[in-house]
Amino acid sequence: MSKASRLGAGSSFGQTQSISARRAAINQVAAAPTEGAPPPVQLPVDTISLNPDNPRSDLGDLTDLGNSLRDHGQKTAISIMGRFAYLEGNPGREDDLEPGTKYVVIDGNSRLAAAREAGLTEIKVMLDDKLGSNPDEILESALVANIHRQELNHLDEAKALEQLLKIHGTQEALAARLHRSQGWVSQRLALLTLTPSLKEKLQSGEESAATLRLVGKKKAEDQEAHLQHLKATRPQKPRTPKQKRQPPTDAPARLPSTDPHTLTNLIITELDVASRRKLTELLVDYKIEESKRMRAEK
């Protein structure tokens, strides 16, 4: 029996069936109850297209993620929607999808790419065509998932916010959608106004995002000077003086004398009454424990 048959659909699965019929087929094959959310199912990785609207400009090195998926299993299912449902919301995007695929990943683009790279043939998915009924909703689903997981680098995050701003209209509305403050949104969008050279310094890590968010609020011709001003007026952390090197803790301390009377006089001279009392209590406790140990050995 083919995988398409096991899913309760032919080669046109996801093309002519309604959403409810698709979910019913998945529930049936997975022995899930007909009510409530369906459980994740396994689908071949080559039937799912990468998301052309993925906000990450560079997926980076996926070796570790792929090894983890292969060796430890997939902990969380990726979210996908049917190819035709995606194209209904994104007309004219047919050429942007990978040929021969029946689904499009919305949340889990990196995990899908890593699974392919690791040689895995199947991946755990949650199918939901309600992830987006129009381009704005589909785009938002992908962007919000990445922003909340903080998987984007600073510029990709700012670009994602810029795209979401077009959907929501105002920074206040976008901030409410993300459960953030308007200032949080504004500071990150400021990175998009940086000069190319400063963007390179941000990407390389030469300058921090926190500093450059302040610089980005200035005119392009004033940004470099403002950056130098911020760096010059930034409070310097006080340098911690080097402490005198202590001998290793496992090295036995040398006593100033081996004579008991001499040591007693030294203790009386150096310690106050309270300290001497505490030391005496510790010595008594030690003697008691030592006596117990010796009796137990006998």
Describe what this molecule looks like in 3D.
- The protein has 298 residues and is of the alpha/beta class.
- Helices cover 51% and strands 7% of the residues.
- Strands 1-5-3-4-2 form a five-stranded mixed beta sheet.
- It is elongated, with a radius of gyration of 32 Å.
Mean pLDDT: 76
Count of strand segments: 5
User: Helix amount, in percent?
Assistant: 40-55%
- The CA-CA distance between the termini, in Å, is 75 Å
Keywords:
14 helices, alpha/beta, 5 strands, five-stranded mixed beta sheet
List strands and helices in order, with pairings.
Layout: H1 3-6, H2 19-29, E1 41-44, E2 48-49, H3 63-72, E3 78-82, H4 83-89, E4 103-107, H5 109-117, E5 122-127, H6 135-149, H7 154-168, H8 171-178, H9 182-189, H10 196-204, H11 209-215, H12 220-233, H13 260-270, H14 273-297
Parallel strand pairs: 2-4, 3-5
Antiparallel strand pairs: 1-5, 3-4
Helix pairs in contact: 3-5, 6-7, 7-8, 8-9, 11-12
Brief rundown of the structure:
The protein is of the alpha/beta class.
